[in-house]
Amino acid sequence: MAEFTMELNDEQKEVRDWVHGFAADVMRPAAAEWDEREETPWPVIQEAAKIGLYSLDFYAQQFFDPTGLGIPMALEELFWGDAGIGLSIVGTGLAAVGVLANGTEEQIGTWVPQMYGDVNDVKVAAFCSSEPDAGSDVASMRTRAVYDAAKDEWVLNGTKTWATNGGIADVHVVVAVVDAELGSKGHASFIVPPRTPGLSQGQKFKKHGIRASHTAEVVLEDVRVPGHCLLGGKEKLDERLARAREAVKSDGERVKNAAMATFEASRPAVGAMAVGTARAAYEEAMEYARTRTQFGRPIIDNQGVAFQLADMRTQIDAARLLVWRASWMAATGKPFTSAEGSMSKLFASEVAKKVTAQAVQILGGNGFTREYPVERMHRDAAIYTIFEGTSEIQRLVIARTLAGVPIR
Ligand SMILES: Cc1cc2nc3c(=O)[nH]c(=O)nc-3n(C[C@H](O)[C@H](O)[C@H](O)COP(=O)(O)OP(=O)(O)OC[C@H]3O[C@@H](n4cnc5c(N)ncnc54)[C@H](O)[C@@H]3O)c2cc1C
């Protein structure tokens, strides 16, 4: 009989401690430097590749953990180390998931290993969906993909924005409109292979946080990719479009809900990153509160400070439990009938923002300087309520799912 347990098994603990070791020994000491440089920390990614932490194998192994906790556990530790470097290490995974979710076995085998490169020549990949006028409103996407049957090529035109690793990636996964009348169901994903003419990096953004992670526009001007770069293949796309046209006519809502299921399964990952940043800031604040003396006693002796720390830790633990529940549901195929994936992302990201702000307050003047890491963690935490669906969009999804009506 399956036994309920909240305890990690030995293998999970071993992986967690191994990732934690890398986060503590390699990422933490490098975090401030790469935050200031606002550049991709290639040497750190290389170090991660050397030990197998930056590799398809590692993520595949964690992904297939039957409890679902492998990925959130690893992400929490990496983002405890540093969020900007963490995203540089896992950003490729976002593009890889795009291929794993929609690609054929051949496409997965060809492109996913190329996304990571090899130990001596590491590469990164980018997933490009957002556009200047299509952020939360994905259906407003304008980038077009037109099929040139004579050459069996797709021609991509448009501008993507806020792409993690955009322009510096070897492999870009680009989402484009193939049938404008079907809204987001008329989208398809394409591989743009390394050095394809017409793809260029636009503006690189200077950011508030996660500054070690590269974020840029990606411009596509008559980018021609072979037919085999359409993820899933043409036959499957034609079938899917035909089904969507039928469904739009008869049952539009059901189609929308099917699309959301994918996000429900991936959103807990962002929640886990947020838990990592929040925990890091909480630990700094706890240490500081125990050692900083004012009025002749450690500041934690004041209930006003101690109660904040109690609340911070409680919120972090609650966030982790929501993340783990949703990850377990995804791994075991449970239906997200209450948008539990969105719940976990919403709660954990809001907790990270709040907890990091409290940590700055507990460190006082020091918390406001770059001499202490909570200042950076506070800036980094702001991303979690924005990307992979803002907090408002998570609330919209949760409310719609619970109410069963299309709340606007
Ligand atoms: C650092 C960084 C990295 C990123 N990486 C990637 C990436 O790799 N690939 C990629 O494709 N994208 C990426 N993004 C884009 C990210 O997913 C979008 O920024 C996000 O989806 C929000 O879109 P937006 O910025 O256009 O905001 P908008 O959609 O314009 O929203 C603006 C505000 O309005 C609110 N709002 C919008 N609609 C509603 C509504 N219906 N009800 C209530 N409130 C609403 C939002 O919640 C938000 O507060 C990244 C962004 C950042 C900042």
UniProtKB/TrEMBL annotation:
It holds the Pfam family Acyl-CoA_dh_N. Its cofactor is FAD. Belongs to the acyl-CoA dehydrogenase family. Residues 9-115 form the Acyl-CoA dehydrogenase/oxidase N-terminal domain. Keywords: FAD, Flavoprotein, Oxidoreductase. InterPro entries: Acyl-CoA_DH_CS, Acyl-CoA_Oxase/DH_mid-dom, Acyl-CoA_Oxase/DH_mid-dom_sf, AcylCo_DH-like_C, AcylCo_DH/oxidase_C, AcylCoA_DH/ox_N, AcylCoA_DH/ox_N_sf, AcylCoA_DH/oxidase_NM_dom_sf. Residues 258-402 form the Acyl-CoA dehydrogenase/oxidase C-terminal domain. The keyword Flavoprotein applies. It comes from Streptomyces kronopolitis. This is Acyl-CoA dehydrogenase. PANTHER family: ACYL-COA DEHYDROGENASE (PTHR43884), ISOVALERYL-COA DEHYDROGENASE, MITOCHONDRIAL-RELATED (PTHR43884:SF12).
